[in-house]
Amino acid sequence: MAVSVKSAQRKPLSYKGYLKLDELLSLQKPLSKPAQHDELLFVIAHQVYELWFKLMVDELETAISLMSSGDLYEAARLVRRVVTIQ
Questions:
Q1: Residue 40: what are its φ and ψ, rounded to 5°?
Q2: pTM confidence score
Q3: Residue 39 structural domain
């Protein structure tokens, strides 16, 4: 699946820019004072779980739409993907 993505500035889009890594990596801010060593692990692990949940919801919504249109093979493929993620 080839996808062409153009930025507003018409510059090639970088990995860092596409994933918004600066913004993403700025979100792991432990809140405890003094900082607890395992807090960063907790934040990162739970943010990752939330991203997986978001993907599962998107896949299931798409699968429902595909079932409604009669594309059962593709819908089943997406449901299997959700099972794999789970």
A1: -65, -40
A2: 0.78
A3: 31-85
- Counted domains in the chain: 1
Give SS3 for 26. Answer: coil
Tokens coding 46 = 């739970």
For residue 16, is it within any domain? no
Please report, as a single letter, which amino acid is at residue 68: S
d(CA 5, CA 34): 43
DSSP state of 1: -
8 Å CB contact between 82 and 59: yes
Start-to-end CA distance of the chain, whole Å, equals 24
User: What confidence tens digit (pLDDT) does each residue in 25-82 have?
Assistant: 999 988 999 889 899 999 999 999 999 999 999 999 999 999 999 999 999 999 999 9
Give CA–CA dist 22/75, Å, rounded: 35
If you ran DSSP here, which 8-state letter would residue 34 be given? S
